[in-house]
Amino acid sequence: MQRQFRTAAAAFGVLVLLGAAGCGDSDSGSGGKLDMGIAVANISLNFAHEMVLGAESAADHAENVDFKTVGPPNTDGPAEVQLFQNLTATAKDGIVLENLDPPIFTRPAAQAVDKGIPVVALDTSPTDGSKVGFYVGNDNYALGELMAKEALKRLGDDPKGEVAIGVPHPGTPVLDSRAKGIKDTFTKEAPNVRIVGPFQTYSDPGQNYSSWSAQVNAHPNALAFLGVGDADSYNLAKIKKQKRTARG
Questions:
Q1: Total Cβ atoms within 10 A of residue 82
Q2: Could you tell me the pTM of the whole model?
Q3: Cis? peptide before 108, omega within 30° of 0
Q4: How far, in Å, CA of 235 to CA of 158, rounded?
């Protein structure tokens, strides 16, 4: 998760430069401070929490920033849109925007930019019409490749069987790119492995657990189950531990 922390801190660093350059002699901020913030897709999940910590740490180091964090308690794109729009009323010197549904943020982001608010996209690439010109994120396809290669190290030479892939929100470019990286790597390096999925596993921890439990039961002989989202990691570990305990 340190990757998310550093990425968010870098995004905020860019935002400070943009905000400082844009405010000039305006009356932005109180007492000479910049008013800035971050909007995240789900404020209660680990990945978003790490992003928030990274941005807040960078804001603390900058010293001249009043910083605000917003995000819904569960992944809810329309709710985040409303929170983001509310944030534009106060964070006039810049906003870091992370979301899992880029199309619905196209117009709200463009409206913020039109108001003169610098917006930096974090983790999820902005859409063309959003007018957001700066993006800070990972090479998510490469992350998928890395996950697949680590799995292959544990599967031995010339593995044969099924590998199941889970994606919390199919259609989200960040997550789909990771899944594609996994699938392409297995196709190239392990031709006798059949990829099943990607299945929707949801970001809500309870729904995620239920989804993975169903897939594990449906594919009892699978070589591996690979998830590209936050809750996938600890729920798959939990299910694996339960299966081991049940076997005695």
A1: 14
A2: 0.81
A3: no
A4: 28
C-alpha atoms less than 13 angstroms from C-alpha of 227 in its C-beta half-sphere = 24
Query: What gap in Å lies between CA 162 and CA 180, rounded to an integer?
Result: 16
Amino acid at position 184, single letter: D
Q: Which residues contact 154 (CB under 8 A, 6 or more apart)?
A: 224
CB 192 within 8 A of CB 164: no
Q: Are 39 and 48 in contact (CB under 8 A)?
A: no
Q: Which tens digit of pLDDT belongs to each residue from 1-59?
A: 445 555 555 555 555 555 444 444 444 555 578 899 999 999 888 888 888 888 888 88
Residue 202: phi and psi, rounded to 5, are 70, 155
- Contact predicate 211/235, CB 8 Å: no
Taking alpha carbons only, the member of 69, 234, 217 closest to residue 168 is 234
Tell me the residue type at 114. D
